[in-house]
Amino acid sequence: MKILLIEDEIEMQKSIQQYLSVDKNIVEIANDYDSAEEKIKIYEYDCILLDITLPKGSGLDLIKSIKKKRPKTGIIIISAKNSFDDKIHGLDLGADDYLPKPFYLPELNARIKALLRRNNFDGDNSIRFNEIEIFPEERKVLVHNKPIKLTSKEFDLLVYFITNKDRVIQKNALIEHLWGDNSDQFDNFDFIYNHVKNLRKKLVESKCEDYIQSLYGIGYTFKTES
Length: 226
Fold this sequence. Notes:
By secondary structure, the chain is an alpha/beta fold.
């Protein structure tokens, strides 16, 4: 899961990032309004954790930008401004949830998972597509009801493909989703080829339909219709 944390308190940033990274999430940081707005324009996120009080602007104004640019992105407001008006205003603007500071990190993590289930999996604990069933919280995949062993990146790739099925996915989008801010360190996209090739091989060897198709010079698509 790729998460953007918009928060200017350094210690808060570190504790949330470390806690959520244990579950293999990619957590990017924006320290102020301007850097957050730039990231929202360029990148896609599964969930955005948003403080209301930010340097250079209001988090409430960012909600408008997020809903305009990325309407399906989940938003959880995390704020010390525990006023009723802020809560109502943020939810009216399109935020999905509101968690006042201070909060327990396990509760934040649970709310993120619940939000993702509602937005992406119709509230279910698993994602089912034909012969494939994915259990995100357990990071487990079944094909024809039998488990297959995937690496962490292969698992993330499969989830991303299925949640974006029938879309053309460019290689840079895959890399940004799987590596976040660290994607800038790669000189080329060749390594993504091996991750996709290995995932495809494991699925086919498990007698899964060959859904992943390469688009020369562009990227890939998880094609569900012939």
